[in-house]
Design a protein that fits this description.
By secondary structure, the chain is α/β, with parallel strands linked by helices. It is 45% helix and 16% strand. The strands form two sheets. Strands 1-2-3-5-7-10 form a six-stranded mixed β-sheet, sandwiched between helices. The protein has a four-stranded mixed β-sheet with strand order 4-6-8-9. A hairpin with a 2-residue loop joins strand 1 (6-11) and strand 2 (14-19). The longest helix is centred in the N-terminal third of the chain and has 15 residues, at 30-44. The protein is globular and about 60 Å long. The protein binds acetoacetyl-coenzyme A. Acetoacetyl-coenzyme A binds next to helix 2, strand 6 and helix 5.
């Protein structure tokens, strides 16, 4: 498959997608988001891939939605567009997705990082929701996911007053998993993804789904869903293998079945 706006590679069990519109700081347009969602879905369907990394380049993860392409759109055109719904496709990915962020992660770029399951940031990463500067608000989940990630106080400042978070602040507020020197951020994300990719695939997928449920439902419903998922895993070969391997003091061999 050839793409116009992304580069796709595999590193053993890890799928890597690089956003590739460097002249516009990886601004997200319809084509890019469709290609990104398609590449993620292809990795999700590939049994040889256990985890996925999305990255940009050192200067920019992504500087948001492509303002030039959006500037003249009508409300009806925005409503009909696949732009925002592509984020729902990204949300539907079952395998873990890690954002490797360096430089700008603004607007839709920040929202893309927030749509991932973990964020590895370079020391230069900057997270912001500057939509207020162009007369709108975040439209790809920023008001919801950011508030859940960093809390109301910081989210309000970011969305109402264009406060930008450094990588270290992002880590302090629970947005970012790890901050590493710029030379290492991609390798660190790939190493984290590679480690996760060696683990029991179905348990990984159910674990991701269950943690995400925590942000969607009541505690009672979330606990019930978690229990059903936990019980369901006893129908898998991997549960039998994992527990047998523990008892027999050997490494498990996962099958994803
Ligand atoms: N859309 C379109 N083009 C963009 C862009 C964007 N979001 N961000 C940067 N670019 C383009 C610039 O227009 C410029 O192109 P030209 O060379 O043709 O002029 C090129 O990328 C380089 O950008 P700058 O010269 O501005 O670089 P800088 O280092 O001086 O500034 C920046 C970097 C602070 C990130 C600045 O580019 C900027 O403020 N970008 C816009 C950020 C923004 O407002 N994002 C939110 C978009 S709306 C959104 O995302 C809605 C949503 O929720 C889905």
């Amino acid at each position: 498959m050839t793409y116009k706006t992304i580069l796709v590679e595999t590193h053993k069990q890890v799928g890597l997608i690089r956003l590739n519109r460097p002249k516009v700081l990886n601004a997200l347009n319809d084509t890019l988001l469709k290609e990104l969602a398609g590449a993620l879905e292809a990795f999700d369907a590939d049994d040889a891939v256990g985890a996925i990394v999305i990255t940009g380049n050192e200067k920019a993860f992504a500087a948001g939605a492509d303002i030039k392409e959006m500037a003249d759109a009508s409300a009806v055109e925005m409503h009909k567009s696949d732009f925002i719904p592509s984020f729902d496709r990204i949300r539907g990915i079952k395998k873990p997705v890690i954002a490797a962020v360096s430089g700008w992660a603004l607007g839709g770029g920040s929202e893309l990082a927030l749509s991932c399951d973990m964020i590895v940031a370079s020391e230069t990463a900057k997270f912001g929701q500057p939509e207020i500067n162009i007369g709108v608000i975040p439209g790809a989940g920023g008001t919801q996911r950011l508030a859940k990630a960093v809390g109301k106080a910081i989210a309000m400042e970011m969305i109402l007053n264009n406060r930008t978070l450094s990588a270290d602040e992002g880590q302090t507020y629970g947005l970012v998993n790890r901050v590493v020197p710029v030379e290492n951020y991609l390798n660190e994300a790939l190493a984290l993804a590679a480690e996760i990719a060696t683990r029991a695939p179905l348990a990984i997928q159910f674990g991701k789904e269950a943690v995400n449920q925590a942000f969607e439902t009541s505690l009672t419903e979330g606990l019930a869903d978690e229990r059903r998922a936990f019980n369901f895993l006893f129908a898998t070969e991997d549960q039998k293998e994992g527990m047998a391997a523990f008892v027999e003091k050997r490494d498990p061999r996962w099958k994803g079945r």
